[in-house]
Design brief:
Elements lengths: L1 H8 L3 H9 L1 H10 L5 H13 L3 E6 L7 H21 L3 E5 L10 H17 L4 E3 L7 H13 L5 E6 L5 H11 L4 E3 L14 H18 L4 E3 L3 H13 L8 E5 L4 H9 L4 E7 L4 H9 L2 H12 L11
Parallel strand pairs: 1-2, 1-8, 2-3, 3-4, 4-5, 5-6, 6-7, 7-8
The structure holds flavin-adenine dinucleotide.
């Protein structure tokens, strides 16, 4: 219920403005968002690369209301890919299909994905289409299949273990040649499409992970769940899979202790780095994942500037 309310709140302009103007709440936001400008995003990227991480850059935004906005979003990604190429940053991009106009003009969206894929390939990096909520899954999966068939081998997407359909999608997209990011899923989905119990989501995650370790193309395991990370390491070792042939992915600002430990132990770790002005929906999904975050944030939101400020959660 809490998750459902928060996901619905992600569209609230009033709450977004209140968050923007509250100094303390801004500090909570800064834990998850690397800044608002391209320069701030790139500065955070360079710092993480210096620590041994690779990256996937997310210029936050979703559900644009015109193709001009979609084109503007693509233009920011072009700028990022130019920096990635010239600076040799080990950084792919993560894009939401609705940010590129999937719901307005599917053909126009496919053209923008193709254009970004070509530029990303020139820089030697990968494009991941983030997976949004369930009505968009089939069109996103089809878009990846279509991109692969058009020769854009560097286009993949996220798949969400909470969806009943995902085991089938994993096979379908692997057959198409796509490298996939496996995550649990961040939206409030109904029972007829998604597992509701954590135990079922985790079991499905491990089954999908084992399939990807056995058959996938450079699988990307996106989770901060230490039990899943340990189980994936064990399965990979049992299958004789080299550490360089798969990677773990974690979100900027979350479980940085685990991120560092993975790098130290010689695993590939990619940080998902979000930045940009349209951070509110991304931020509310992070709050929804952890009730403790919500409590801290609510306190910060109502606190007077200059009042008590404890460390971010
Ligand atoms: C790189 C990456 C890309 C993703 N892309 C997508 C996508 O395209 N589509 C999609 O639907 N979802 C995406 N997600 C989100 C994902 O689906 C989950 O909602 C999120 O990762 C939480 O699940 P978990 O696997 O970390 O496990 P959980 O069991 O939720 O968390 C495990 C532990 O991680 C820590 N943790 C998790 N979340 C938070 C948080 N918000 N704040 C503080 N600590 C936290 C806590 O210590 C928690 O105990 C992505 C996640 C990652 C890491």
């Amino acid at each position: 219920m809490l998750r459902w309310l928060l996901i619905r709140a992600s569209g609230s302009d009033g709450l977004a403005d209140l968050t923007r103007t509250s100094g303390l709440a801004g500090r909570v936001v800064a834990r998850y968002i690397a800044g608002e400008s391209v320069d701030e995003g790139l500065a955070a990227a360079r710092a993480l690369v210096a620590e041994g991480a690779t990256l996937t850059l997310d210029h936050v935004g979703e559900f644009v209301s015109s193709m001009q906005q979609a084109e503007a979003a693509a233009e920011v990604y072009r700028t990022l890919l130019e920096h990635v190429g010239t600076e040799g940053l080990p950084a792919g991009i993560s894009v939401k299909p609705t940010q590129l106009g999937l719901l307005l003009d599917p053909e126009g969206c496919a053209r923008l994905v193709g254009d970004l894929a070509t530029r990303a390939a020139a820089a030697g990096v990968h494009v991941t289409l983030d997976m949004e909520d369930h009505p968009l899954v089939e069109t996103t999966v089809s878009l990846v299949e279509r991109s692969q068939a058009a020769g854009h081998g560097n286009v993949g997407c996220a798949v969400q273990s909470y969806l009943h359909r995902t085991a089938e999608d994993v096979r379908r997209l692997t057959a198409a040649g796509a490298s996939l990011r496996l995550c649990k899923g961040a939206y409030a989905e109904p029972e007829h499409v998604a597992f509701q119990r954590k135990v079922d989501v985790d079991r499905a995650y491990l089954e999908d992970a084992r399939y990807l370790l056995a058959h996938g193309h450079e699988p990307r395991f996106a989770t901060h769940d230490h039990r899943l990370v340990a189980a994936i390491k064990r399965s990979a070792a049992q299958l004789g899979r080299d550490r360089s042939s798969y990677e773990f992915q974690m979100l900027y600002g979350i479980r940085t202790d685990m991120q560092k430990a993975l790098i130290t132990d010689g695993y590939r770790l990619r940080v998902y780095l979000p930045f940009g002005t349209e951070w509110f929906p991304y931020f509310t999904r992070r709050l929804a994942e952890r009730p403790a975050n919500l409590l801290f944030f609510a306190r910060a939101l109502v606190a007077r500037p200059g009042g008590d400020s404890t460390a971010a959660p």
